[in-house]
């Protein structure tokens, strides 16, 4: 099959699957088989595309909108990293969802799987967008289709979280549309270009950059972050989608696209915009970690960790050099695998034991050894400790800060990693070394397998990616992206 056809198949498979899910709403086994099969097919397509991308980008234009504006896709090295992350994790979250949703006898399961598939369709469209126009369409679709997932429980708390979700992200989409229109007015194009293409007065370009930042509130930087912890009322597979697979990654992915493919490192440095982004990221990292330390709800504590880790990516982006960029790009998949491990563990703990607070987890490690062992791996990786993949990406970001002669950024990286350990390690210690007399609810053994197997695989891959970061062509794609941005000077 031609690479162009693979690209279209990869993007549209989740969309086609969403229709089949609706048609099979009265046949749950077939409905869920479609979900899992579609995730596998998308991943296989994207994995094969990744091999082609190492030679040359793959482009497909669907139709022309206006002079200089096409609705088109382009698989380049950087976009393929995001697509590989989302597609590979979709497989595991789909399997996990079967056990989770059935064990809890959740209502509206067809609606859940339908919007989940649309969310992945949006994520792949974002990853492979050739320009800001295509990007904007899929970015807004992602916002709209994830609202029913956030509000899935339909309780007052869930509906309130959904309203806050939209209150932050819909105006943010308006800012992105305005920034896209201004970009087109200034340059006559919105096509992403390695090294950037934007031109204009200094004042206009600084204003435009701030407008772009406001357009990417999905990156959950402070103070525009509160929608994310609030959204943890959603089912655990949705939390995994928000934090590891699609939503927040779309935010940081978009900022990196703007920094390196709209502005370019040289212009960012000349306008001192990297310093602004670094300040926002550094502030977010420290404050998010301090809030995590005092949070007793397990999923919300992990959510604050996500806010911190996203800004790790932004800090690496802001250093404007190949080392830090490589660390930021690697942290997209590495954080994805580690963070989804933590969320899947939190969901399994809640379903099996009925516990969702950190203060209630004492001694549970003896009854759920695989779950808490996987949680420990995720915690070690978040803290940047080998042999988990988070060490590698943080290492590159730290050396990128040294290369940029930014000792303040280096100090933030080190302090933030220490704070990660402070609020994650006691959970593991208390689970394994304290006593508990709690009795667990009775669950089908099959449901346990559906949940425990995916989180075990994500934990395992978090280590495998440290030992061999190119297991999914990730390291080669990162290297290729850096070479494209810096003209081979890496």
TrEMBL record:
It comes from the Archaea. The chain crosses the membrane at residues 6-24, 77-100, 112-129, 135-153, 165-187, 207-228, 240-263, 275-294, 306-325, 367-389, 395-425, 446-467. Residues 129-418 form the NADH:quinone oxidoreductase/Mrp antiporter transmembrane domain. Signal peptide: none annotated. Keywords: Membrane, Transmembrane, Transmembrane helix, Ubiquinone. Pfam families: Proton_antipo_M (PF00361). InterPro entries: CPA3_Na-H_Antiporter_A (IPR050616), ND/Mrp_TM (IPR001750). The keyword Lipid metabolism does not apply. PANTHER family: NA(+)/H(+) ANTIPORTER SUBUNIT (PTHR43373), NA(+)_H(+) ANTIPORTER SUBUNIT A (PTHR43373:SF1). This is NADH/Ubiquinone/plastoquinone (Complex I). It comes from Ferroglobus placidus (strain DSM 10642 / AEDII12DO).
